Fold this sequence. Notes:
The chain is mostly helical. About 80% of the residues lie in helices and about 0% in strands.
Amino acid sequence: MKLMLAVLAAFAVLVTGASAVDIPKKTRDFIDKATVANKFEIDTSKLAQKFGQNAEVKTFADQMIADHTKAGQDFHAALKEASIEPPSEMLDAAHMAKYVKLRVFTTERGFDSAYVDEQLGAHEQAIDLFKDYAATGPTPALKDFASKTLPTLEHHLAMIKDIDKNLRQESAATGASTGNAGRQ
């Protein structure tokens, strides 16, 4: 009976690819965090398409959806190359709370600045994650994916910093609050 269970377990690993035990912790952590980050970028950008008021914010949201959809496809290709089953695409509790706050508790007038603030933080975290994995990740296909995706994330951060600056200037000119005055 034990032999039969061992054979079935080995067969299951062959059929499904690498088991969770075979995946280095650093790789599993990267996969989990990259999956959540990508979904968060897309989901919050869909909110910006719907609730955003500023044309730059809406254009940025369109680009986030397009770029992060492609990044998700590239990510799945890298996972397949590494014989790793992709995780379910769900937000973790922290990102779900940020999403709900943006969706439910942000007024239309304050949406743009709240969205920009979330994008600034999300892209700073994503860049740190991808830089680290590109430099020290143990799984070659995912390390390559991180290296190739990093310039796009850095470009997104530069774009959102420019948008933040423009919103602040508009806010200063009109005397309105941007809602993210703590950012420099």
